[in-house]
Fold this protein.
Amino acid sequence: MRSRPSRLLPLAAAVPSAVVVGAGTFGASLADRLVTEGWAVTLIDRLGPGHPRAESGGETRLLRFSHGPDVLYTRLARRARELWLELGGGVFEERGVAWLARRPDGWEAESERVLRAEGIAAERLPPDEGPALLPGLSPAGLSHVLHEPEAGVLHAARGVRTLADRAAAGGAHVEAAAAEPAGGAVRAAGRTLEADAVVWACGAWLARLFPDLVELRVTFQQIALFEAGAEWSGPGWVDFDGPWYGHAAVAPHGFKVCHDADGPPADPDARPLEAGEDAVRLARGYLAERFPGLAEAPLASAPGCHYSLTADSNFLFARHPAEPGVWLLGGGSGHGFKHGPAMAEHAAAVLAGRAEPEPRFALGERTPGRKLRTAGSS
Ligand SMILES: Cc1cc2nc3c(=O)[nH]c(=O)nc-3n(C[C@H](O)[C@H](O)[C@H](O)COP(=O)(O)OP(=O)(O)OC[C@H]3O[C@@H](n4cnc5c(N)ncnc54)[C@H](O)[C@@H]3O)c2cc1C
């Protein structure tokens, strides 16, 4: 894979090469990015982009700018929105996100300060104006609603497939195969692939591939989507102190309700592909309180998924300490989807030697915390 300078031909700039393993939001975004920057790219995934067993599978994800007081992730999300819009294909729907604040001075207020400082549109609405924004909302007990009109909903599996397709159209070799590390190279489909850069973007499996370097807590998370007509259409929503999140009706998937407490430990190869009845009952209990008109709505679907959680909810992007050409990318921590293309932009700049890796994404000990998630309580 490594391009060799020829003695017979005039000197031309060597095309850098990369193997990216894992076609979730991080890997597919990076492959796509590197192709646009002129790299020769191979993208390998044993399940294929957007598979329901991957963390980036399933139908929808929220794109929000609010990250409490955190400026880095606010900017990353803002940049990601531009890149998702540029990708096109209806992957990003600008529906807005409504934060159902239970306190006047909580995480939402901290977020609002950062949004205003960054020039990102934000509106603070009194609770009784909430239902006009979010159909069927019961605003009882809310302090206010923070509306991010330029945030919205991403079509997840379609998004990673679109990224992988665009990378392929740009010349990437996209392959379905299980890969394993072989020193600084990649062993897949009976051969060894070498490249200038090898990036392992394997989601929850990263900790299995590099157990001495990467520690991830993998948990089973459950989603409930209820049948709801166009009159229930509206923005994404987050009840940070609940902790609950979801979105108003998005055709054809329905009205989404997820509990953002950490689920039980999960094996990503064996966890159920569907949520359990208890999780659906819990979601109905929340609907009865916050969206009572939907409490009896028929269930549309109830997918299962998993989180790959770092100790402090920061992502991971770091060079392998023993293999200079090998990089590890992941640690989505329950909030990584939206950031894929912007993380890829950072990673590509680092791989090309234009930037230093962000220290918060480094390997090594981290102080436990969940401050970047939409879950203010467990
Ligand atoms: C229920 C739920 C709701 C969420 N909501 C949001 C949200 O609203 N907003 C948001 O931004 N984020 C959200 N997230 C988080 C987000 O989905 C993840 O952070 C993100 O998808 C992680 O992507 P990834 O690329 O790291 O992993 P993955 O998508 O799992 O991709 C890793 C890929 O690596 C492949 N792979 C693994 N090992 C190998 C191997 N040895 N060889 C070849 N291929 C391999 C796998 O097949 C897989 O396709 C949510 C997650 C869940 C579970």
